[in-house]
C-alpha cells in the first residue's frame, strides 16, 4: 500500500480496501461482528479479513462451523440481540445452503414484525468469473437476491467504492447482500480515506460519451471501460454507468444518460434470462421510450451453468461482445 | 405399519402416574428439588394455564370452522409440556417458539389474540417481543426449524454480552427454543446444535415429540429415540413425559439453570401427542387410528393434573372457578376476533425495510391513488 502526496489518498487493491473498510467499521462500532468459514487465523480464502481476528479477538471475528445456513441463521439471532453481523460466504456457488435463511428469514423479519425488528446484517459474497476456478466458484447469483423484497444488493467495482460501500452496508439498518467481484480483488486503485464518493445506492456515470450508454456492475464495469476506450479509437463515444446498487436501482443517472445518447447496452456476467439486466431493459423502455433510438440490448453470460474454466472466456462477455452490441444499437 | 414408536416410559422422567398419583421414576430423582419450590398456588396456576390454553385452542379451532380464521394449528394435548416448560423459564429468559406454542405464549403474558390475528390474515406479527409484557416470547416461525438457528445466534449474543454464567440465577439469561419431531430432520436444527455446542450457548432445546409431522409418524424421522441424537452433538439430553406438567416443569427448570450457569446447551425431549389435527386443513383419519389417539387421550395432561390436585385437596369450587375463567377467556377471544379490523395498505409497504426505499414509496403511492380512483376519485 503506497501513500500518495495527499495524505488521505492511498493506492491499494480492492482486497486491501475491503479489509481496511471492515477494520474501520469494527473500530467504529463494537457491535460489528464478522462471521464465516476460515476468516479468522487464515483471514479468509481471499484474505479479506486478514489480521482482523488478531486485532479484535475471537468474539468479534468468528471462525464458524462449516454451514452456510447456520452462519446466516445465527447472524439473524445475533442481530435480534443488537449485533451487526457481517457474514462471509466463501464462494458465490456456496450460498444456496443459506438461501432459506436469507430469503425467508433475514429478508422478511422486519416486514414480519411490521418494522419493529431491524436486521442490520451484511452478507459478503465473492462472485463472478475470470479466475479460472472449478465448478461453483465463478457464479453470479445476484438476481435471486435482487428479486427478494426486504434485501438490498450492492456491488462495488473499484477499491474506493469497496472501502466506502462496505462501511455503508454495515451502517444500513436493513440486510445488505454485498457482492464482491473477485476478479477485481487484486488490481490497485486510489482510495480516498477522507470521504465517500457516493451514497450506497447511487449509480454513477464513470465515463462521459454521446453515442450510446453502457451500464454494468462489478467486474463488468472494467470491461465496459475497455470497450469504450476501443470504441473511442474508432470515433465512437460511449458513456459508461456503474450501477453500484442492484436493489434498489438508482435509475435517474441512467435515464439521464439514455435521454442524451438514445441507446443503452446492459452488460452482466450473469445469465441474461430473468436477470438484473432484464429489469433494467424493461424499466428504461418504460421510462425513456421516446428517447430511445434503438432497443435496449443485453450482453450477458449464456443461459447455461457456468462452464468449465477453459471455456470461461467464451462464456463471459468481453469488450468485443459489448462492441458487437454497440454496433447493432448504432445500426438502428 | 409402524404408526408410532413405543414410548416406553422407562427412561422418561415422570413425576405423576397417569392416574395423578405422585410416583416419581428413578430418573426423576435429580429433578425433585425443583418440585419442592412449588407452592399449592403454583400448582393451581399450572392447572389454570392448561385449562385456559385448551379453551382458547378449542375456541380458535371453532372460529376457523366458522370462517373467521384462515387456519388453526391446535395445541390440544401438548399443554403439559408447554405450561411446564414455559413456567420453568425465568423472567429474563428468551423464548423462540415454532407455531403451536399457544400455551407457552399464554404463560409468558402474550395476549393470544395476536395468534388469532396472524391466523386470520390481518398481520404476520401479532405481538412484539421487545414489549416487556410479552415475556421475551418471539413471534412464531412457520418454516420448520428455522427459529432454532435464531435462538442459537441470540444465545451466542448473550454469551458475548456477558449476560449469563455470572452465578446469579435471578439475572443470568438463557434461551428456550421450541421445535417438533418433524423439525429434527431439518438441516437447520442440526446446524443449530452444532453451533450451540461449539459456542457453548446458554440454551435449552425443547423438543415436543407429538409423534406426527402432519401425516408422517416420528418413526420416519428417526429410528433412534430423538433425545439420544443430542449425544452426537456433545449436548446433554433427557427424555421427559411431556403430559406430566410437573415433570416438564422440573426438567426444564433444572436444565435452564445448568445452561445459565455455564453448562452449555441442553436438550429435552418431551413425549406428548397431537390429539387434534396438524391444522384445520388436515384430516388425521387418513393416517392414524382412533384407538391410537384414544390411548393418548387416556394420558391427557389436564385430567392427570386434576386428579393430582384433587389428591392434594383442591375443592370443587376451585375447579368450577377455573372452568368459568376459561369460558370467559374464550368468550373474550371470540368477541375480539369479530372486532378485528382489516389492515390498511400501509401494512404491506411500511415495514419491508427499516431505511427509506424508493420502490416502497413509489408502489405504495401508486396503489393508494389507484384505489382512490376506483372509489370514484373521492380521494
TrEMBL record, chain A:
Q: Which residues form a coiled coil?
A: none
The molecular function terms in GO held by this entry are: magnesium ion binding; oxidoreductase activity
Reported cofactor(s): thiamine diphosphate
Question: Known InterPro entries for this protein?
Answer: THDP-binding, Transketo_C/PFOR_II, Transketolase-like_Pyr-bd, Transketolase_C
**What residue stretches are annotated with the Transketolase-like pyrimidine-binding domain?**
12-187
Record's Gene3D superfamilies? 3.40.50.920, 3.40.50.970
- Name the keywords, alphabetized: Oxidoreductase, Pyruvate, Thiamine pyrophosphate
What is the name attached to this protein's record?
Pyruvate dehydrogenase E1 component beta subunit
Name its species. Mycetocola miduiensis
The organism's lineage is:
Bacteria, Bacillati, Actinomycetota, Actinomycetes, Micrococcales
TrEMBL record, chain B:
User: What keywords are annotated for this sequence in UniProt?
Assistant: Oxidoreductase, Pyruvate, Thiamine pyrophosphate
Superkingdom of this protein's organism:
Bacteria
Essential cofactor(s): thiamine diphosphate
List the catalysed reactions: N(6)-[(R)-lipoyl]-L-lysyl-[protein] + 3-methyl-2-oxobutanoate + H(+) = N(6)-[(R)-S(8)-2-methylpropanoyldihydrolipoyl]-L-lysyl-[protein] + CO2
Provide the E.C. number(s) assigned to this enzyme. Answer: 1.2.4.4
Pfam families documented for this protein: E1_dh
Instruction: Give one GO biological process term.
Output: branched-chain amino acid catabolic process
In terms of InterPro entries, this protein maps to: Alpha-ketoacid_DH_E1_comp, DH_E1, THDP-binding
According to the entry, every stretch annotated as the Dehydrogenase E1 component domain falls at 48-314
Known function: The branched-chain alpha-keto dehydrogenase complex catalyzes the overall conversion of alpha-keto acids to acyl-CoA and CO(2). It contains multiple copies of three enzymatic components: branched-chain alpha-keto acid decarboxylase (E1), lipoamide acyltransferase (E2) and lipoamide dehydrogenase (E3).
For this chain, the family text in UniProt reads: Belongs to the BCKDHA family.
Annotated protein name in UniProt: 2-oxoisovalerate dehydrogenase subunit alpha
Q: Which organism is it from?
A: Mycetocola miduiensis
Amino acid at each position: 500500500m503506497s501513500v500518495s502526496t495527499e495524505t488521505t489518498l492511498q493506492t491499494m487493491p480492492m482486497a486491501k480496501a475491503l479489509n481496511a473498510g471492515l477494520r474501520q467499521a469494527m473500530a467504529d462500532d463494537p457491535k460489528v461482528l464478522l462471521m464465516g468459514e476460515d476468516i479468522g487465523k487464515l483471514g479468509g480464502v481471499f484474505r479479506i479479513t486478514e489480521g482482523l481476528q488478531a486485532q479484535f479477538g475471537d468474539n468479534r471475528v468468528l471462525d464458524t462451523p462449516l454451514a452456510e445456513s447456520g452462519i446466516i441463521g445465527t447472524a439473524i439471532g445475533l442481530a435480534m440481540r443488537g449485533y451487526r453481523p457481517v457474514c462471509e460466504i466463501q464462494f458465490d456457488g456456496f450460498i444456496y445452503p443459506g438461501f432459506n435463511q436469507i430469503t425467508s428469514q433475514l429478508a422478511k423479519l422486519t416486514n414480519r414484525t411490521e418494522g419493529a425488528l431491524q436486521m442490520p446484517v451484511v452478507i459478503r459474497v465473492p462472485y463472478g468469473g475470470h479466475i479460472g476456478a472449478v465448478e461453483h466458484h465463478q457464479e453470479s447469483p445476484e438476481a435471486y437476491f435482487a428479486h427478494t423484497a426486504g434485501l438490498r444488493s450492492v456491488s462495488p467495482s473499484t477499491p474506493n467504492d469497496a472501502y466506502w460501500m462496505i462501511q455503508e452496508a454495515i451502517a444500513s439498518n436493513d440486510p445488505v447482500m454485498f457482492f464482491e467481484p473477485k476478479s477485481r480483488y487484486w488490481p490497485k486503485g486510489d482510495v480516498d480515506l477522507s470521504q465517500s464518493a457516493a451514497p450506497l445506492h447511487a449509480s454513477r456515470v464513470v465515463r462521459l460519451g454521446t453515442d450510446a450508454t453502457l451500464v454494468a456492475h462489478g467486474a463488468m464495469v472494467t470491461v465496459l471501460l475497455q470497450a469504450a476506450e476501443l470504441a473511442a479509437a474508432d470515433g465512437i463515444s460511449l458513456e459508461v454507468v456503474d450501477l453500484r446498487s442492484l436493489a434498489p436501482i438508482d435509475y435517474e443517472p441512467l435515464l439521464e444518460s439514455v435521454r442524451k445518447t438514445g441507446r443503452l447496452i446492459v452488460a452482466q456476467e450473469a445469465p441474461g434470462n430473468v436477470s438484473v439486466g432484464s429489469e433494467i431493459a424493461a424499466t428504461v423502455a418504460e421510462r425513456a421510450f421516446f428517447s430511445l433510438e434503438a432497443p435496449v440490448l443485453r450482453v450477458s453470460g449464456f443461459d447455461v451453468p457456468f462452464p468449465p474454466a477453459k471455456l470461461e472466456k467464451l462464456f463471459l462477455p468481453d469488450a468485443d461482445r459489448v462492441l458487437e452490441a454497440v454496433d447493432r444499437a448504432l445500426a438502428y | 405399519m409402524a404408526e408410532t414408536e413405543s414410548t416406553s416410559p422407562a427412561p422418561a422422567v415422570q413425576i405423576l402416574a397417569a392416574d395423578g398419583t405422585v410416583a416419581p421414576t428413578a430418573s426423576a430423582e435429580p429433578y425433585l428439588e425443583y418440585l419442592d419450590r412449588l407452592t399449592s398456588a403454583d400448582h393451581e396456576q399450572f392447572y389454570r394455564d392448561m385449562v385456559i390454553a385448551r379453551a382458547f385452542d378449542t375456541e380458535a379451532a371453532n372460529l376457523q370452522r366458522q370462517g373467521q380464521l384462515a387456519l388453526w394449528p391446535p395445541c390440544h394435548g401438548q399443554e403439559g409440556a408447554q405450561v411446564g416448560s414455559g413456567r420453568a423459564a425465568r423472567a429474563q429468559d428468551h423464548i423462540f417458539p415454532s407455531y403451536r406454542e399457544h400455551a407457552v405464549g399464554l404463560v409468558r403474558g402474550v395476549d393470544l389474540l395476536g395468534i388469532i390475528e396472524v391466523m386470520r390474515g390481518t398481520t404476520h406479527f401479532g405481538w412484539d417481543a421487545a414489549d416487556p409484557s410479552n415475556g421475551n416470547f418471539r413471534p412464531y416461525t412457520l418454516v420448520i426449524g428455522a427459529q432454532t438457528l435464531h435462538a442459537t445466534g441470540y444465545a451466542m449474543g448473550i454469551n458475548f454480552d456477558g449476560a449469563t454464567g455470572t452465578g446469579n440465577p435471578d439475572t443470568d439469561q438463557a434461551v428456550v427454543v421450541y421445535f417438533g419431531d418433524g423439525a429434527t430432520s431439518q438441516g437447520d436444527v442440526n446446524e443449530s446444535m452444532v453451533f450451540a455446542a461449539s459456542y457453548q450457548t446458554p440454551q435449552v432445546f425443547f423438543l415436543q415429540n407429538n409423534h406426527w409431522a402432519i401425516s408422517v409418524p416420528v418413526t420416519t424421522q428417526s429410528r433412534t429415540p430423538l433425545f439420544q441424537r443430542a449425544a452426537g452433538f456433545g449436548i446433554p439430553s433427557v427424555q421427559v413425559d411431556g403430559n406430566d406438567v410437573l415433570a416438564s416443569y422440573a426438567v426444564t427448570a433444572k436444565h435452564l439453570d445448568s445452561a445459565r450457569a455455564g453448562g452449555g446447551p441442553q436438550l429435552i425431549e418431551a413425549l406428548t401427542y397431537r390429539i387434534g389435527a396438524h391444522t384445520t386443513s388436515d384430516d388425521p383419519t387418513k393416517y392414524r387410528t382412533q384407538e391410537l389417539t384414544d390411548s393418548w387421550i387416556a394420558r391427557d395432561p389436564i385430567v392427570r393434573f386434576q386428579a393430582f390436585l384433587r389428591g392434594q385437596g383442591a375443592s370443587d369450587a376451585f375447579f368450577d372457578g377455573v372452568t368459568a375463567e376459561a369460558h370467559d377467556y374464550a368468550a373474550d377471544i371470540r368477541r375480539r376476533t369479530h372486532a378485528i379490523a382489516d389492515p390498511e395498505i400501509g401494512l404491506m409497504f411500511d415495514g419491508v425495510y427499516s431505511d427509506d426505499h424508493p420502490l416502497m414509496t413509489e408502489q405504495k403511492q401508486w396503489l393508494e391513488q389507484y384505489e382512490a380512483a376506483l372509489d370514484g376519485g373521492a380521494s
